[in-house]
Amino acid sequence: MPRVVSLLVLLLVLLILGAVFFQVMAQFLVPLFLAAVLVVIFKPLHESLQAQLPGRPRLVALCTSAAILLLVFVPTLLLGWKAYVECRSLAQFTQSEEERRELIEAVQLRGGRVLAWYEKTFGTPLDAKKLLEQAARRTGGLVLAGFEALFSVLVGSAIMMIAVYYFLVDGPSMVQAMMRLSPLDNAYERELLEKFASVSRAVVLATVLSAVVQGLLAGAGYYFALAPGAPLILLTALTMVMAIVPFVGAAAVWATTAVVVFCYQPVVVDGVEVRGDAFHAIALALYGATVVSNADNVVKPWVLHGQSNLHPLLALLSVLGGVQVLGPIGILVGPMLVAFVQTLLNMLNKELQSIEAAQLMSNAR
């Protein structure tokens, strides 16, 4: 009896400390999860470096972490800077001093008409100063939220890279310790680890391949819709990057490009050059909505079905549902949960079959 009481007290203390530990670590779960995914994806590179530098695990882990940092973050930073430079030069090109003055005059004129219409309709003048103050406060709040999000991303990225290094150094010992503490059979634990590795690679491959396909398809549309001299390579690369971002996708680039073409791209009409090309803008928008954005719904289920043995319908629903429930990280977690459920059901089926076989053998005796 005292042993039972001691075990119950031990379990109660463990549950309380586990709940507190989860609250402390909850904000770091996403960076740690992404670090584990990166370790799985770059495992071949790590093993290759281990063969070249035997007996130096920390140096190998440091080299692998540096390679991951260069391969993942440096192209993103370069692309972001290139996009900023191109956008700034494009804005300067499309807005001459005369055009800016005409734009300001048009805004003032239309603003006066709006104020007059509001006073005539509602019987009271619109307080433009108060409206501008509210807009300024909201803009300030958005800017502050943007800085907070940027700081959170930077901190999360730093934690992720530190975790990558320690996972590479101490990963095998961590896995062995977890396997000793887990009540599952070692064969089942190894099967779950293999499933985690295979699904991680499949999801990353599906996401990257889908982004590349959408970018190339969009690039073909930009080639036919934009005027000569347009930044086709930059727009194609931006489309590939934005295609990875959930809820935004490639439409953030091709839709914006279609609007710019509709408003600013010069076109010759009856021998006169005018601003705004409606035909190519509408064609690009239709092409982007029907072909570019829908390529994601074809490529991802196809890759996930081939690489992780998920049914195409389950693969598509797991990605969409994971993103809706968990946000961007749901791209990885959704398919992984479905694969884990399938694996656990197979394990449960094996256990039930073994129990049934044992009962049949005992009855036969």
Distance between the termini: 36 Å
Question: Strand count, sense and closure of the main sheet?
Answer: 2 strands, antiparallel
Strand-pairing-aware structural class: mainly alpha
Q: How confident is the prediction overall: mean pLDDT?
A: 76
Give the amount of beta strand, in percent: under 5%
Assembly state (oligomeric): single chain
pLDDT < 50 stretches: none
Order of helices and strands: HHHHHHHHHEEHHHH
What does this protein structure show overall?
The chain has 365 residues and is an all-alpha fold. The protein folds into two domains: 29-181, no CATH class; 186-365, no CATH class. The chain is built from 13 helices and two strands; from the N terminus they run H-H-H-H-H-H-H-H-H-E-E-H-H-H-H. A two-stranded antiparallel ribbon has the order 1-2. Strand 1 (266-269) and strand 2 (272-275) form a beta hairpin. It is elongated. The relative contact order is 0.07.
Gist?
With 365 residues, the chain is an all-alpha fold. 85% of the residues lie in helices and 2% in strands.
Which features does this protein show?
365 residues; mainly alpha; 2 strands
Draw up the topology in text.
Layout: H1 2-25, H2 29-41, H3 43-52, H4 57-94, H5 97-122, H6 128-181, H7 186-225, H8 232-244, H9 251-263, E1 266-269, E2 272-275, H10 278-292, H11 296-308, H12 312-326, H13 330-364
Antiparallel strand pairs: 1-2
Helix pairs in contact: 2-6, 3-4, 4-6, 4-8, 7-8, 7-10, 7-11, 7-13, 8-9, 9-10, 11-12, 12-13
